[in-house]
Amino acid sequence: MPGDLPEAATYVIVGGGVHGLSTAWHLAMELEDRGLGSGADIVLLDKSHPGAGATGIACGCVRNFYMTEPLHAIVRESVDVWNYDPVLFGFQQVGYISCGEENQIADYERIHRSQNSVGYTSDLYVGQDARDFLTGVWPDFKHHTIDVVIHERMSGYAGTAQTVDGLISMCERYGVQIYSGVEVKGYDVRGGQVAGVETNQGRINADVVFLCAGAWIPAHWEMLGQPMALDVGYSDGTFVENKDMWTYWRLEEGEVYYDGPYYTADNRNPPVLHIELMSTPVHDAQTGVELDDNVYVYWKNGTERMERPGIQGGAMPIELGPEANVEPYGHANDEYQARPEFADYITACMGMFMKRFEGIRPNFKERRNGGIGAFTPDNVPIIDWILPNVFMIADSNHGFKMTGIGKLVARQVLGSQPVTQLQPFSLDRYAKGEAFGSGTTHSPWV
Ligand SMILES: Cc1cc2nc3c(=O)[nH]c(=O)nc-3n(C[C@H](O)[C@H](O)[C@H](O)COP(=O)(O)OP(=O)(O)OC[C@H]3O[C@@H](n4cnc5c(N)ncnc54)[C@H](O)[C@@H]3O)c2cc1C
After folding, report:
1. Domain extent at residue 186
2. What is the distance in A from the centroid of ligand 1 to the CA of 215?
């Protein structure tokens, strides 16, 4: 830690998750490149420590499978950041495969076109080609009702601890001052903008504040006097009055031992796999009991926390509503651990789609897992000024993968022109009737 908290800083970043750290690093580089200053002008505050929020407990999947087309350019930019130093950040570019049913073909075609239009190479397979592709990768794949597949070659996954360490080291290399254990308690708002940030260790005067507080953003939003509900106009002409500004969702994830090893037919580390089949039920193979009337599951090779080789994955998140107990966060919170039935569900899905995983339920690692996130009114990030000198990155829980947001934000804040890729994520989209709608999915990650 760099000594006592300074009395003033040009840039104060609140939150040391992926967005706070990436913004700090890129801002420092941009300041140097433009001859406008250096990392020493940036103070990053975290009430616990960098990585204490969702960034430290994420599954780590890096994918670009979104109905919201403007996100494709954001993930494209993010992969460049991951590849800046994949070893430092623990990035494994193994690819990502998403599987759907016939009713999703049109969405898949649209996503595939949009991804490729921004240089995010992906391949689309439909019908028997999709099923042949899957058995080509995993010979024991059981395709059930899969009709469509996207293979994103540029995607993959990263280890969260390594990512946090890597981002910290980039911040330190550029002289950013990172303070752990400094909690922002309030903002001194004068004349419509923030003059100072009040913390448990005193006040810091700030020229520009970056709000990167993850699941805690709703509390900061309220401290800054912003409305907790708003009218939302969607691009299809529909309108919802007085919608909650923030909705918490609970993510269920877990790990399964597998000494296998879990490789592809050609002995490679397999792509991240994601399956959503909206009309295919999941049955417990032992009892025959229907666990759910549809499939939503993802998994990847390798887990950070296990002492043996294994698989890490998750299922459909659960909506909590506008209130949630954010403290204590993550694995420390008794209320929001993955439910016992999650273990049955994910292992049933694994056995349902790959023969090698049949009967794998006893290998589920029983321990604390999962966490919560704060979602925006249309479940899509808001990346914008919320006051003339407060810039908010609220990623709607999309974003361990989105390391490129900080890079684009640094460019936007220091440049004279708005950055095109960020414009669709403006706050005024709700008032302007440009909120995003959902596609054919049950998931909030649209
Ligand atoms: C279980 C789980 C699995 C996930 N899996 C994936 C995945 O596979 N792929 C993916 O792309 N995304 C995933 N996500 C989403 C992703 O982790 C988040 O979207 C992303 O990490 C959010 O980053 P952030 O920087 O906005 O916030 P965070 O990482 O939450 O960081 C916010 C920081 O702000 C600090 N803070 C809060 N309040 C204050 C205050 N008052 N003063 C000072 N500091 C404060 C906190 O201590 C924290 O460190 C997952 C999320 C969860 C919960």
Report:
1. 1-91+157-230+377-446
2. 6
